[in-house]
Sequence to fold (305 residues):
Amino acid sequence: MLLAQPVTAQELADRLGGQLIGDSSLVVTGLNEIHHVEAGDLCFVDHPRYYAPTLASAASVILIDQVTECPAGKALIVVDAPFFAYNDLVREQRPATQYGDRIDASAEIGEGTVFGPGAAAGAGVRVGANCHIGPNAVLLEGVHLGDGVTIGANTVVGGEAFYFKKTTAGYHPWRSGGTVIIGNDVTIGPNCNISRGVSSPTVIGDGTKLDALVQIGHDCKIGRHCLLAAQVGVAGNTTLGDWCVLQGQVGVTQNLTLAERTTVMAQSGLMNDTEAGKSYFGSPAQEARVAYRDLYNLRGLRGKK
Fold:
């Protein structure tokens, strides 16, 4: 997420009471977690396993819990609890939501767009022309919809990410700093949930269609003209290429990349990246022709040809 007001590494270290190592003049323009970090961003690391990839990332400034050598062109800010410092910075940029009117005064609603009974749009929402927002559907703050979008009844777009930091006291929620961006001519069925990104937008591309009861996790990037059938669940930070098809009750784990025109057959559980144009089946899913061959051989072992 972009900061409303950029800040130097030195200013940030002073504010957090941290020890600065490296270039104090670097300017922080955004906050990001490691999966989407860019130059100008601040991110954090608090476990030795992730020191190397974080220090090698594009982040300009890194919150860290141990004094360590700073890579050239970066700055480190050493604090006792990097996660909580980072989370507080996100919360400053996106404070707790204050709900008021059903359609917030700051929402921008395009010509010809209709909201059903009980439907709501939060602060900073932008909805294009000729959209249909079904009864009791909710567009939470900062969500963007293109033109010709249909949102089914009781669907929530922009809810908090299901993303937690494990501590000795339990699971502490990350404050979601991203939003949701939905393209043109997208259909989302009733009772779906589209989570906002932790630090980048969750995106649904032009022409994609979601059936009822579909869950899209935080920071997912869904391509153009994809079809997701009922009860599909896509975990956070997963990318679907264009024209992918996920049949009913498919589950996709986090951090995967599905190449364009991937088909995943009903009730499959996908745990690995896919190749373009191929079909997958089973749990854990594998290429369909391999899965079918394995099932045939298994039946043979049981004497059921």
User: Anything to note?
Assistant: The longest strand covers residues 2-8. The chain has a mean pLDDT of 94. The CA atoms of residues 182 and 208 lie 9 Å apart.
